[in-house]
Structure formats: C-alpha cells, structure tokens
Amino acid sequence: MKDVKWIGVYPAVTTKFHENGDLDIPNFVRNLEAQVEAGVDGIIIGGSLGESSTITHDERIELCKAALESVGDTADIILNIAEGSTRSAIELAKRAEAAGAHGLMVLPPMMYKPTDQEVADFFIAVAQSTALPILLYNNPVDYKIEITMDIFDQLKEYPTIQAVKESTRDISNVTRMKNRYGDRYKVLCGVDTLAMEELVMGADGWVAGLVDAFPAETVAIYKLVKAGRIKEARDIYRWFLPILELDINPQLVQNIKLAEVMTGIGTEPVRAPRHILIGEERKRVIGILEHGIANRPTLPEYKHL
User: Fold this and answer.
1) What value does the mean pLDDT take over residues 142-159?
2) Is the pLDDT score of 1 beyond 90?
C-alpha cells in the first residue's frame, strides 16, 4: 500500500461532464495531467468541487480508476467520502480500497447535526473498515459540524487517521493543532484565501481549489514558502488573491470550471441542479479572470525546491 505523506499541494479536482451530464473521462484526465506536470503531490476526487452531491459511488470509482491509470504512479489518489450514514461510508471506503485508491478524505456524517461522540464514532468506524490512510475534513463554516480537539483526542489512537483539511477559517488552528499534537496529524489548509498564511504558520500542505485552473502558480507558492523565499511567494499570492476569492463563493464549482476553460485545461458543463454562470455574475467572474490572466506573473524555477 502506498505511503501517503500528506505534504504538498493536493488539488480538489472538478468532475468533468459532457453536455448530457455523463462523465467526461478524457477531459478529466487532461486536467489531472496538467496538475501533475505542475508538480502537485496528490489528487482529491469527488469533493465539494467535484460535485460530490451529484455523483454516484460507481462514478466515484470510475473516476478513481481513471486517475490511478493516468497519474497514479506520480500522485497520491485520494477519494472523498461524504455520506449521511456510517454504513454507506464504510461501503464506499471498502470499494475505494479494492479499486486501488491510495487514501481517503472523509467528511463528518452529512444531512444530520450529530453529537461530538457520534462524529468520533463515525470516523472510528470508517477507519476500522479499511487500511487506507485518512484525511479528515474540518469545515464547520459550510457543514455546521466541527471536529473539535476533544474529538481529535479520541482519534489519535487510530493510526490510519493521519491528517486534517483545516477549513475552520481560523489560522490559529494550525498552531493549536501543532502545539497539542506535534506531528501526529498533518495539517493541510483547505481555504485558498488563507493558504499562504497557514503555510507560513506551519501547515504541511494545501488542499487547493483554483489550482485546478492555475496549477503552476499554486505549487510555486507552496514550494517558495517552504523554501523560506517568502517575498517571492507573497508577490505571487497577492496577484492570485482576487482569483482565489472565487473559491469562497456558493458558485465555486462554476467559477473554477470557467477558470479552467479560460486557462485551457478544463470544460464548463456542470451537473444539475447547478447551472453554468450567466448574466452579470458571469461577466464579473470573467473580468476577474481576464485581468489575472493578462497579468500572470513570471514564475521562478520552483520544481527543484
């Protein structure tokens, strides 16, 4: 089984669809190859940006197999689990392992506001059902469920629970986790607009969104920060921030798919009930992207860092 290090840049990739709503595997793979060429460390399939709520278990496994075949020798292939029941989460975890996935990202039980103990027991049950390493997704802003420090205390006894996607919007949580647990849990920033700040404060990685359209710039920021070249990273990040803000928006999927089209590495169709952007909002987003692309920075050589 592959050793997932949970260090570096992990794109939460979009799911590509044909106009009729079917999976578009060739364009999905085309984007993955652009990510790997830029130097990402892993690929997260079927997350919020992957339109998790509209894709079936069978489709997740199909996407996982396509990713493994195309870039699995180079990048960690991580399948997202966002389920309302423990039984369904366990079923998908087992299928992911059987398909060859390298790891899992697991959300708390969805569609229900559980108690802290129910959250802990949910994660423990999934961890006990598979040998795959697990990244927990802590996003109380969007999902109204917080993985508290008391929950992390319970989970530290389970070695396959290894990392957290930190999306609380509180950058001090990076320090709080490091102070309390040292290196027991890897911490990956899950909010594009806080990424450099959290990396400077010791986050181990970045689960990124706009990386789907701008992979080189994203990886360059990560590498430069970790190399201590803060000013160079900051200059790129300041250019990037207006674009990164498209990730903290209810239409983040549509925004990022439009960005992928404009940078030449994606397609725009979304699956209902989503609609592609229209009207004034589409004009606004295109304006942000056109300005960013026109002023795209020249990157230093970063891949060797």
Assistant:
1) 96
2) no
